[in-house]
Structure formats: C-alpha cells, structure tokens
From TrEMBL:
Gene3D superfamilies: Collagenase (Catalytic Domain) (3.40.390.10). Residues 1-20 form the signal peptide. InterPro entries: MetalloPept_cat_dom_sf (IPR024079). This is Peptidyl-Asp metalloendopeptidase. It comes from the Bacteria. SUPFAM superfamilies: Metalloproteases ('zincins'), catalytic domain (SSF55486). Keywords: Signal. The keyword Signal applies.
Length: 370
C-alpha cells in the first residue's frame, strides 16, 4: 500500500502500480493556500526530504482557480520528477511523477484527499483499428514557427456518467489535463497553448463504445449531443473533448490531420491526467502519429511519428505520441524531435520522428478552427 500526505492532517492512501514501496508525499497547506500563477516554487516533502519544485508553466483560470506545473531534478539516489496541480474550491487535484511512481490525487470532500489507481497502464491507448487520416494536407500548412503563439480553445463536454463516476472535481481534472498538455509544449519549445473555452455536462448516456460515442459527438443532427455544436460556436472552441467514464481505451481522436469538422476527441476520465492523453489526442488532430514501429503509415507527414528509447538494463522512456516500449517505458512530457534531449538522448530523429516539427507546422491551423 502507498501512504501519502498531501496536506497536513489529511491522509492519502492508494496503490502504486509501479513499485511495491511508493514514496510518501507532503505538500505544505500554507504554500497551496497562497498559490498564484506567479508562484516561483513549491515545497514538497518526499520520504522526509524537502524538495523545491520549480514552476515551468502556470495560469490563473477564469474561475479564480490556479493551474500550476513544475519539476525538480534528481539528486544522488533520489529521482527527479514533475508536479502538476489545480487548486479549486474543492481542494487540490494533482498528479505527481517521480521515477516510476505516478500518483493521482483528488479531493473527495470535507477537506479530504485520496490517491486513485491509474487505469492508463491497464488499458490500451486507443480502441482497436486505425484512426482515419483527415483532410489536412502538408501543402496547406506552415512554414514551421512562422505564427505567433497558437492558443487552442477547448470545449469540454463531460458526460453525466463521468461526473457521477469521478470522486473529485471533474472540471478541475479537465484543467489539470490541459495544464499537463501545456507542460509538454513548454518543455518542447512549441509555441502553442491550450485553454478551457467552456465546460458543460451532457445528459447523454454513454454506450460503452468510445468510437460510437465520439461519432455521435461529432455528427450534427443525429439526435445525440446535438446541442454541442451550437455551444462550440458560442464558446469559439477550436477543439471539443468528450470526457467519459465507460470505455475500454484511454482516448481517441476523430482524425489524424483534422479539419474543423473533425476536431473532436474523447478521453476516459481515469486516463485524463498522468499520461498526457489529451495532448496525445490533440497531437493526432494536428497530424502526429504513433512511433513508427507500431504505426508505419506516412500520412500526413512521413517524419511525424513518436519515439521511444530503451537503454540496456535501465528504465526507458517514450514521447507523447509513442506507444509503449517492448519492455515498458514511462511517458515523458516531450514531443519527438532530433533537437530535444532527454537524459542525454535525442527524443527523435529528422526523417521519422519529429512531432515537434509537425506541431509547429499545424498549430496555427488547429487554433484557427473557430
């Protein structure tokens, strides 16, 4: 069992899927109470040792809440890691990465918090079958880096099933997923940013089939979630996310290389934080594909694949778009690129694995759908 403390006096208990002995954590209540978008650092206590978490990306939210992401370096035998959190009236919604350990923390009412087991390592990334290639053409985008910051506005449509099935603040979870996505762009030098355009709850009853539910979300006039299309226009949302509770995969994008009519994605709430699933699905809309060993297709970009690295006798890693390594790898908040290094190794190569370049080519188009 994992025993963690998030705030003084509040015991968190859950299960670590990575190791039998997971770290104890403590985040000072005074620090989180005073947290604002400009807070340069937070103090964590890991296994009794103080750790300074440096801010990398943060935002004051329209609700008055705060989204904040940061990291700390490895020291000696102690692993480095990342912390992303959202502070809302319900409490702290957070994800902590430390080596192989991944902790997801939610408020459960009455000032209490708990950790949840993560479904991301038990479920496939996508349902079976290929994601169709959309109408995006390489000739219609770019050049890379020419546009100013691309702000992608996201409408989150949460099902009533997801609201009922999630023990914490589901809107804060959506903001946490956005914060994790923005951390990947920050780390990779992609001039792109996702922001919440709106959050609505639909009474639509999930079918248990993610592909069918996403198709119904996308299709106007079919009698299912038809109100979403007017809401998308009302909120000027470039992309629409269906946040779900029942499916046999973590996420799905409508198309690889989408136009505005195909800019719809679905994410299972159990997978919404911790493995950068929202960033992964938006990556598909922008034209990014999985690692070339699992996904050798070359449209719309031959160089647009994810990347994984498996060193001998050590834990490997994989970028946002990559499927898992043969022996298991942790996902890191980086996009594949020959120009980015992680642990001294390039996160991609120029001919097959340069999703950073894909995003730089297509980000302005995605951000211009509304």
């Amino acid at each position: 069992m994992l025993h963690s403390r998030l705030l003084p006096g509040l015991l968190l208990a859950g299960t670590s899927l990575a190791t039998a002995a997971a770290p104890s954590l403590k985040l000072q209540e005074a620090a989180t109470s005073a947290l604002h978008a400009g807070t340069p650092a937070l103090m964590l206590e890991i296994e009794g040792r103080p750790v300074a978490v440096r801010r990398e990306h943060s935002r004051a939210l329209a609700t008055g809440d705060v989204a904040w992401s940061g990291s700390w370096d490895a020291t000696g035998q102690a692993a480095g890691g990342e912390l992303s959190l959202v502070r809302s009236p319900a409490g702290i919604t957070a994800v902590v990465h430390r080596g192989e350990d991944l902790l997801r923390i939610v408020p459960v009412g009455g000032g209490r918090h708990q950790t949840l087991p993560l479904a991301t390592r038990q479920l496939p990334m996508h349902p079976p079958g290929d994601i169709p290639v959309g109408p995006l053409k390489p000739s219609a985008v770019g050049p890379a880096g020419a546009a100013p910051t691309s702000r992608v506005r996201l409408l989150v449509v949460a099902t009533a099933d997801a609201v009922a099935g999630y023990p914490g603040d589901l809107r804060a979870l959506a903001e946490l997923s956005i914060a994790e996505s923005n951390l990947t762009y920050q780390r990779s030098g992609v001039d792109m940013d996702v922001e919440l355009a709106g959050y609505v709850v639909t009474p639509y009853e999930e079918s248990g089939n993610m592909e069918q539910d996403l198709r119904r979300l996308r299709s106007p006039g079919d009698g299912h979630m038809d109100e979403v299309h007017a809401l998308r226009d009302q909120h000027a949302a470039d992309v629409v996310l269906l946040l779900m509770n029942r499916a046999f995969a973590c996420g799905l994008a409508d198309q690889i290389g989408a136009d505005a009519d195909g800019a719809f994605v679905a994410v299972l709430e159990q997978c919404a934080a911790g493995e950068y699933v929202l960033a992964h699905e938006i990556g598909h809309l922008a034209g990014a594909r999985h690692d070339i060993k699992r996904d050798p297709a070359v449209a719309p970009f031959a160089f647009g694949h994810g990347y994984w690295y498996q060193p001998p006798r050590a834990l490997g890693w994989r970028t946002v778009m990559s499927y898992d390594c043969p022996t298991g790898c942790r996902r890191i908040p980086y996009w594949s690129s020959p120009d980015l290094l992680h642990e001294g190794q390039p996160t991609g190569n120029r001919n097959e694995a340069d999703n950073r370049r894909v995003l730089e080519l297509t980000r302005a188009k995605i951000a211009g759908f509304r």
